[in-house]
């Protein structure tokens, strides 16, 4: 059995069992508090004792177990209850106070995705040194490529796992508008819902993760690095404890919240003539899979070319990452920025920009929302 196969069947949570867990809430009047939690909030009574003068009651419901204790000297706490229709549960109120003082927050069970309005700006982020990296989820190292997040609407991260090996990941999904991952260096074994057995994403490959598709990272090479772009900048990661991956179903055409999964393999891609003179590109397939919401392409210079003609665009968001080589960026009102591999930049709508002095072998990753955005060439 390979390490990655072993990783799929490990269950580190299978340790000596804790049979139950309870949240302890104090109360002065057990009958009054018990009536509130059972009759108004729909919890059920599981235990109550002692019989002659009840001082403790255990109730359960909505994925929660509570022990009400008479006179317990603790903070009454806060309970967040997610509801299909929060306002209907309490006559329009979204917050209640229990007789024992516990504050009850009534929240939407499936809140709409909050996509902040964009605050467009010009951003250049250099590769930098070790101080540019922080530690994120599952021990991975993160470098923030858009520190201002364009008003909270977009995030771009350079993610690395220097030592490689098994990744302490679980089956999970993201509540997001858009999310793609480009493999910059190394390789990684991945699993995705309805996409069959595990596969390997190698340098130059890319995946589009449709909203809420279940997936899991298994194992990666030493020196593994990816570029991840998402919208909005802050979005929720949810663990799915019930779905195993692979999940026994293969449906590459399945639509997840309006998008299809994309697995782009660089070694199988065709290079096409680009919209700008001297450029050719390979399309990652995201425009078609998102019905025009976004696009991603890898650009490279044709032999003998040294510049990328100036233009301006009308897009919501255009991001570039220098994959290989070096180039000088000239952006309206921003002077000249000398860029090399690992650097990135965001160009806001209406700003004229071009690139000169490109080295042989220059390659750029371009990500744009929407896919079909207007451009105007400048002399």
Sequence-ordered SSE layout with sheet pairings:
Layout lengths: L2 H7 L13 E5 L2 H11 L3 E6 L6 E6 L2 E7 L7 E6 L2 H4 L5 E3 L5 E6 L14 E3 L8 E2 L5 E4 L10 E7 L3 E2 L5 E4 L2 E8 L1 E6 L6 E4 L3 E3 L6 E6 L3 E8 L4 E4 L15 E2 L2 E2 L1 E3 L7 E2 L5 E5 L2 H4 L5 E7 L6 E6 L3 E8 L1 E6 L3 E6 L3 E3 L6 E4 L6 E7 L5 E3 L2
Model description:
With 379 residues, the chain is mainly beta. Helices cover 7% and strands 43% of the residues. The chain contains four helices and 34 strands. The protein has a seven-stranded antiparallel beta sheet with strand order 8-31-28-33-26-25-24. A seven-stranded antiparallel beta sheet has the order 9-10-11-19-14-17-23, with no helix packed on it. Strands 30-29-32-27-34 form a five-stranded antiparallel beta sheet, with no helix packed on it. Strand 3 (56-61) and strand 4 form a beta hairpin. The protein is elongated and about 95 Å long. The N and C termini lie far apart (61 Å).
Strand content: 35-45%
Low-confidence stretches: 1-9
Radius of gyration: 26 Å
Q: How many extended strands?
A: 34
Helix-strand makeup class: mainly beta
Q: Which keywords apply here?
A:
single chain; 379 residues; mainly beta; seven-stranded antiparallel beta sheet; 4 helices; 7% helix; elongated; disordered N terminus
